[in-house]
Structures are given as structure tokens and as C-alpha cells.
Amino acid sequence: MRGATHIVWDWNGTLFHDNAAIIGATNAAFAELGIPPITLERYRELYCVPVPKFYERLIGRLPTDDEWKVMDLTFQRYYAEHRVGCGLADGVPGLLAEWVSAGRSQSILSLYGHEELVPLVRGFGIEPHFLRVDGRTGPSGGSKAEHMVRHVEALAGLTGVDPARTVVIGDATDDAVAARHVGAKAVLYTGGSHSRASLEGVGVPVVDTLAEAVTVAEWLPAG
């Protein structure tokens, strides 16, 4: 049944419109190594996961372990200070409520730290719309794929959510990789960390609004 479709939402750059905080934190991290600042457009052209590979695209080499630690700490500190000025993407509360009212389920899986993510989601008053809210545990900088395995397994254990009836909605190519890793589908949204051109090579639907993403998610598992 179409109503059995489950959405796994990404947070940063998808439900949470934090582009300004992200680019500011990135440039603050770059400054620690004397790397010139970049524009949001350049960021969206080059960004990839794992994040050290993104830095390699910019500086021509992978950061050393010590450089990565300094950059990561700087990024996290700046982002924590500036995320307070960011809000949900347009239409998010209504989209979430409508999905649940139609008898469907949804959850959040993010690479943002779990201890920071949960109170942030709760603060927007949207936590009751989700079966689970899972952030990253362990070191930052990696892929979402293994986190997705744990997330989907937990959902299956709680409610019987089927990966084949699951659609991941996110703003990064890594969201599609993670979806494929567990046998789920994906829809990628152009309003976050990646440009449309960088998303279109992944081979999944690409949309410009979250409303479009939800519409695609309704029929995608049946395709």
C-alpha cells in the first residue's frame, strides 16, 4: 500500500535550513589552515562525504589528522554559535503533519551529533511527528551508510518498517548512497549542500522543494 511508505528525513540542509551557518563554519575552519574562504555556490559544487575528501578537493591533499581535528573543532564551535539564527525550511511543519495525518510514518537520521540534534528538533515542536530521531554517534566526518543500517534496523524492530517501502529525503549524494546501502529509495533536494548538477549524477529523483520530495516519495517505492 502507498500509505505504508516510510520517509527517513535528513536534517541539516533539508528539514533545517542552515546553509548560512554551514558556510560560515566551513570558512572559519578553513581560516585555521590559511585556506581562503569560499562562497556558498563553490561549496555546493564541491561538497562531498566523507568531509576530509571535500577538503582534499579544495587544497589538493587530505588534511593531516591534527589538521582535521583543529578544523572539525573549529567548525563545530562556530556552527553551534550560529545555528540559533537558522530555522526550518519552508513548509516543513505542514508537510510533516500532513504525512502523519495520512497514516504514514517518518523519522530523522542525521550526521549531526545525537546529543545536539534531539533538543534542536524538540525545540521546533516537531518531535512528535517522528518514530525516531537519530543523530551521529562516534567521530564526525564519515558516511551515513552504517548509521542508516542501525536506524533502519531499529525502525524494523519497533514498527516493522520495511526498507523496500522506505524513502530517504536529503540534500547530499551520501543520502542516496546510504539509502541504496539498506535497499531503500532516495529523493535528493537542491536546497542544501549540493548543487543540482552535483546531485543529478546519482541516478535518483532530484527536486527543488520539499513538497515535491514528499510527492515523489508517495509513489517511488511502487515504481
Automatic annotation (TrEMBL):
GO BP term, pick one: DNA repair
Gene Ontology cellular-component annotations: cytosol
Coiled coil segments of this chain: none
Pfam families xrefs: Hydrolase_like
GO terms, molecular function: phosphoglycolate phosphatase activity
Name of this protein: Phosphatase
Organism in which the protein naturally occurs: Streptomyces aurantiacus
